Amino acid sequence: MKALVQRKYTFRPVFFNSLHSQPSGPSQMKLKILVGSMTHTADHVAQAIQMECADLARPVEVEWMDGLDIHVFDAEKAADTLFLVCISTYGEGDVPDNAQMLFHSLDAQARFLGHVRYGVIALGDSMAHSQTYGFGGKRFDERLQDLGAQRLGDICFLDSSDGTLPEAKGAQWCRAWLKAVLEQVSAPGAAGSGS
Q1: 69 vs 26, 81, 82, 99, 140, CA distance in Å?
Q2: Among 34, 71, 111, 144, which residue's CB has the most CB atoms within a 10 Å radius?
Q3: Is the pTM above the cut of 0.70?
Q4: d(CA 86, CA 126)
């Protein structure tokens, strides 16, 4: 099997997207999108989010899960960071190959992750895999919550069988999610508040 190449890129726009009004000040929160995918669909969703939400979080980073382990969530790396797990489901409800190391490290190197705030986009096909639809995202979410991490908002399920473009739907969901989350975490007394 051909190994996926790990890519990490950061988008720092020079100009604001003309479709959105300029915020009063850029958010001090970073959005780090962790991508688990076999066919690159989750990566396409992450790239669409990166472009659509660049005016809400600075920076918006997209990083493939290849080679990552639980240390990606270390407190010093997670300060002022919102994580977004953008992941497909492979086979019979498994996480994709490039996400296996990170997923298994959540058990093998388990530690308290109460400082981690995150969201989940779970990609799948409800027609072909109705029994395991979105399990890649569900499994990551369950394990992160078991370790004390705080999911903010509901899981976004992107269904490849519903006829919509996952990139557009994912970016639209993330924009609304990010606005709500940023209001929540910047509210007085928001430290440690969950969903």
Answers
A1: 30, 17, 17, 9, 13
A2: 34
A3: yes
A4: 17
